[in-house]
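Lab notes, practical 5.
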Amino acid sequence: MRGHEHSNNDLSGTVHGFVVQAGSVQGGIHVSGGAVREEVPPPWQLPPSVRITDRTEELRALEVHRCRATEDGHPTLAAVSGLGGVGKTAVALAWLHTLRAEFPGGQLYADLGAQAPDGPADPGEVVGRFLRALGVPSGQVPPALGERVALYRSLTADRQLVVLLDDAATAAQVRPLLPAGRCVTAVTSRRRMPGLSLDGGHVLHLDPLSPEAAVELLDSTLADGRVAAQPEEARALVLLCAGLPLAVRIAGARLAARPRQGITAMVRALSEEHERLEALAIEGDHDVRAALDLSYQGLPPAAARLYRLLGLHPGREFGGAVARALLGEEAADALDALYDANLLVDVAEASGGERYRFHDLVRLHAAARAAQDESGEERTAALLRIGHHYLANAGRAEEIIEPGRPSLEREFEPEAVVQEDFGPVGGQREAEAALDWLERELPNLMAVVRLARPMGAPALAWRLTDAMWPLFPRRKLYREWHEAHQEGLSAAEEAGNEEAVCRMLTSGALGRLATGAHAEALAMFERAAASFQRRGDALGHARTLNYRGLAHQRLGQPDRAAELFARAAGELPACGDLRAGALARFNLADVAFSQGRYGDAAVDAEAARLTLEAAGDPYNAARAAGLTGRACMGLGRLDRAEAELSAALSALRAQAAGFEAARVLGGLAQLSERRGQPHQARQFYREALSLYSSVGRSRSADAEEASARLAALEPVESEATALERAEAEAPDPAPGPSGGAGGEAGE
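Output from the prediction step:
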């Protein structure tokens, strides 16, 4: 791990291989050498729509509600409820897709997973994904739910956007995800949600199709004349499906695969299934389950086995590569068979690439068939193949993002390794694509981590957590960072693997430090230090010196922090880690500067800069130059201060490190004040405030100090006015490197 700490509460430390900067609790994360993202186009995340039948009145009601809300100047909110399989999502999609031309701001989609095996989606995680889709750089997504929601509403206040929140569990889960302005939001749920009426929502409940409409849907599914030839049998069939579109489509798909079979045979078979499943009836679900049993019985053997094995998948959706890991070369034809039978939903448009999910009733049915038709050993083996597939690909993504990072030992079944397509190959674009894959698969990766111990594979928990490491600080996924490392730590402790225990402690503690749990982080670092010392690992122990220094500095104990930084600055180079030693020396200089010992700060910061430049770390070298400049200003060496600060500003701007560039601008403004140049000072302060605002740090201590100094130079303008004007003049948050603002931390 590598990193460092900065007086502005910017996290850093020394860890194995990775460099990322995470500012104060709300700060950004800067990735050294990260590529600057171009302007993000509007997101178009809605899944493709499917043909619907006899929903004209419902669609008209939704559109009338939208027009009325628009006339009143309010956002549009509609909640569509109904039984499983009644077509809630299909109706919502049919409506929202017609609005694309009127809502050029984009489309956001989230499966809220009310019926998901790992529980409903966390609103904080979902709104974080929405913010990134809307162009907020990963490092600038706030850690707290309230701050994320505030930023989300600010970004959507003047944007024409549609949002689909699918399969919601409660109104409380939905509320943080409602955009502002004149956006349109549709919510689907099995439950009626009258609570959303308080938010201006129109509550629409879908009933099953009428027999005539269901027959029409069956006819369009078959499209071969059998419905016209056997109208009474067709009516009997759709009555057995209870008018649920999902059941009708599944039954129709089975008939379509048997062009010579009459509808009568299907009616007879479905009647028998109804009798068998009657005791399992829950809110009409047995009507779908009967159709599912018949479709399952008609699948080719390979497709039936893939259906069962995918029913064991712990996440909500999956890519085709997972199917190939489970079934090998037969998977492609088996996937086609499942899709043709209406047993899989293609969600590629929403997520990119080859991607599928089950309707929740279908997933439950597939899992039940796996429990019945696969032995316990076979189910465990399938789960291990799924876990090893994700481990192998997460490890490959980590190697692309963090080449050379020492990792914990990883073992997986070679036959489970099917290479995922991350996207562009080569350079920073490949690293960003690998990072995007990790985030897209995060719900599945976390599900595997949670499942590792129960399925008797505890090492999978810490190995997968370690492989996911580059994602957590870059995308500021603090909740998952904490949960994964807690589970990995518990698994490592139970297995008695001290190496894994130490990695989970140090990596996990950096996440706790980033979120303000400083005392907890310190205890974790100290526990790791004791373990390294017992095992005679000098380098590991030396790294914890820097970590512990960071924690003490955050706890307001600068003298103890300086003592630990000084030891780390001496021991790390002796153990062969020159760069980590330089970061520790930078941290030491930072403490000296905060205590007014400008001579010591200048010496240590300059020494750190030289080593960091030699180590190929231009970002941290620029930060060290900025600290040298501020220290020289404190010593009255104004020409040297200007040279150091100007060089630091150029380097930080080149890397789109907005927060650090703003701090350097503040230093140049103070230098201009010292030289009696108030006009130049005001320009620097205004530019600094604009940058602070653009990276979401306008309430940081540095921003408030700059605002106060600007107000002192312009006594008629209050501090609040200065901040407001800076925010108004600030450009839209420019996508920078993954997290372009803050201090550094990482592994």
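Observations recorded by the TA: Residues 422 and 437 are 6 Å apart (CA to CA). The longest strand covers residues 76-81.
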